[in-house]
Amino acid sequence: MTAIYDVYVGVGAAAGSLIRYHVGRWISRISESSFPWGTWFINVVGSCFLGLVFKDFWWHQHDTMWWLLLGTGLCGGFTTFSTMSYETMHLMRTNRWMAAAYLASSLGLGCFFIWVILRV
């Protein structure tokens, strides 16, 4: 039975990664800033989506497979902590204030929006 769980997580992660790649490229093309808007946007939107998925699962009974597909897979593949960490360290070399703003706003807004979603 665990093999099917792996398939759901894998399909979700693959879809999330592809969406992240294309959204990140699109934002990079329209942004000419040294601030990593693509990753920032992806992580904040991903946090919001995870909050919505969690809230729906909190109030309604769903098959566990849907959580593995949407929560673990899609949101896990879409958001990217490792890229955020790398970009923060890169910004630390050139602009410490921008690095701090990037990290604080990414984490702060992600948590804030999940909190709002769960309260509404």
Automatic annotation (TrEMBL):
Na(+) is not transported, but it plays an essential structural role and its presence is essential for fluoride channel function. One of its GO terms (molecular function) is metal ion binding. Its main location: membrane. One of its GO terms (biological process) is cellular detoxification of fluoride. InterPro entries: FluC (IPR003691). GO terms for cellular component: plasma membrane. The keyword Cell cycle does not apply. It is a multi-pass membrane protein. It catalyses: fluoride(in) = fluoride(out). The chain crosses the membrane at residues 6-23, 35-54, 66-86, 98-118. Belongs to the fluoride channel Fluc/FEX (TC 1.A.43) family. Fluoride-specific ion channel. Important for reducing fluoride concentration in the cell, thus reducing its toxicity. This is Fluoride-specific ion channel FluC.
